[in-house]
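Severity: low
Component: inverse-folding endpoint
Summary: output formatting inconsistent between runs
Steps to reproduce: submit the following structure tokens with default settings.
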């Protein structure tokens, strides 16, 4: 890893200018959990590292009647230590509270987890089931992209040269909304998901599921929005075991895992089925409470 410039811009425009100038040889840094390891490993040959934690917009949190928006550099602990956010966005808190240990959570955030774009990223599927939108800034201005369209391959995403993630925003959930995320890991010391599932539901006045989303991690080249799994739940009673079984089967069908040292294709598909049913039930429980 050769010497590189450290740049600490105060505005988004300043950061974009540096990223555009250096192209692939510049990267934003927030927590640095992934970037520094990857730079040392030779994945990036950097001329500049852009510290985005000095930009007020990227470390701010806004939660009002229109919904939640937080900056791409907001660390995990600032989310799960906020009682109001924990109550309204429970799936996000599941992810924020298990990414690394407390030392990592004091620096790293869900924005960096999304930009790293690994298929096993714990933060990405909860962003998807909470209907998250990525706000992106670049040389041509700003644009928005649904989180489920952000990742394009293992370690790759839709960010173009000079672009950076500014914030993540979410619609205000109803009082009958619930979400949950859980992953399977073989042991506590191996902190990479073999499979993970996030689910969200919104109940109507009759106790039926009006809206549902299921997203899968570590079982494909990108996180997967399993649309058929959500569709299997919509219009059904929240206690309909047959519908929940169908959602689990549809999620397993949507998974396209590989066999590697952490698990086989068959094991991962089975885990997706089991975790989907478990997360749907947990999301329903949270929606009712």
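Observed output (run 2 of 3):
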């Amino acid at each position: 890893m050769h010497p590189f410039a450290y740049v600490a811009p105060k505005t988004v425009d300043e950061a974009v200018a540096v990223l555009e100038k250096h192209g692939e040889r510049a990267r934003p840094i927030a927590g640095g959990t992934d970037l520094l390891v990857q730079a040392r490993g030779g994945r990036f040959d950097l001329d500049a590292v852009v510290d985005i934690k000095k930009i007020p917009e990227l470390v701010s949190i806004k939660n009002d009647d229109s919904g939640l928006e937080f900056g791409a550099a907001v660390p995990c602990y600032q989310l799960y230590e906020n009682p109001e956010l924990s109550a309204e966005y429970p799936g996000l808190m599941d992810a924020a509270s298990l990414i690394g240990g407390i030392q990592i959570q004091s620096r790293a955030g869900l924005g960096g987890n999304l930009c790293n774009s690994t298929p096993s990223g714990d933060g990405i599927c909860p962003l998807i089931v909470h209907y998250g939108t990525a706000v992106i800034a670049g040389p041509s201005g700003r644009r928005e992209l649904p989180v489920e369209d952000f990742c394009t391959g293992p370690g790759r995403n839709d960010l173009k040269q000079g672009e950076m993630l500014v914030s993540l925003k979410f619609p205000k959930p109803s009082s009958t909304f619930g979400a949950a995320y859980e992953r399977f890991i073989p042991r506590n010391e191996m902190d990479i998901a073999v499979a993970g599932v996030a689910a969200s539901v919104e109940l109507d006045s009759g106790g039926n599921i009006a809206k549902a989303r299921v997203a899968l991690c570590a079982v494909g080249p990108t996180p997967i929005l399993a649309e058929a799994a959500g569709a299997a739940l919509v219009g059904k009673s929240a206690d309909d075991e047959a519908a929940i079984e169908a959602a689990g089967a549809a999620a397993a069908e949507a998974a396209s895992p590989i066999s590697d040292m952490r698990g086989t294709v068959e094991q991962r598909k089975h885990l997706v089925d089991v975790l989907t049913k478990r997360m749907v039930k947990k999301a329903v429980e949270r929606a009712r409470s």
